[in-house]
Amino acid sequence: MAVARGVSLNHISRESSDVTRLANFYKEIFGFEEIEAPNFGDFKVIWLNLPSAFSLHLIERNPATQLPEGPWSATSAAVADPSHLPRGHHICFSVSNFDSFVLSLKEKGIQTFESSVPSRGVKQVFFFDPDGNGLEVASQDTQKQ
Fold it and tell me: Which of 25, 45, 60, 121 lies at a C-alpha separation of 20 to 30 Å from 38?
């Protein structure tokens, strides 16, 4: 069995009932840049790119599908407190200006939960995007996360 070579993250997709609102959040908070996206006709998409990292594809949610929603918008067992974010449901970014980044989240009224990995000297903050998708931001570390 051959192992994949030259693997890198290409993109992450998120569905939303309001892709414009979600795109604006990722542009404002993380500095994503909007890039040209194909016209799929039946539904709206916005493609964002984080230079030197990966792309985020925001896709208009099909109201007819029964896919699970984010923790905030879930119809049962909703999770609004980032300290209770299910551990397997988040995207993590690393930043070099961790403390000022966390302060900017708080200034925007975004509810956060801070933690750390003491053995690695990494600080973490957890929060949600406007659709309830879990996000983690970690202080940069010289080791891979």
Answer: 25
CATH number, position 41: 3.10.180.10
In what helix (H) or strand (E) does residue 58 lie, and over which residues does it extend? strand 54-60
Domain limits for position 42:
9-61
- Candidates 28, 10, 3; CA nearest to 129 is 28
Cβ 90 vs Cβ 83: under 8 Å:
no
What is residue 140's predicted lDDT score, i.e. its pLDDT? 81
Site of tokens 């542009």: 27
Residue 134 pairs with which residues in a beta bridge? Answer: 128
Residues 31 and 90 in one domain: no
- Domain count of the fold of the chain: 2
The low-confidence residues of the chain, meaning pLDDT below 70, are: 4, 65-80, 84-89, 141-145
Has residue 122 been placed in a domain? yes
CA distance 46 to 37: 6
> What digits encode the pLDDT tens for the residues 48-74?
999 888 899 998 887 776 555 555 444
Residue 2: inside a domain: no
67, part of any domain: no
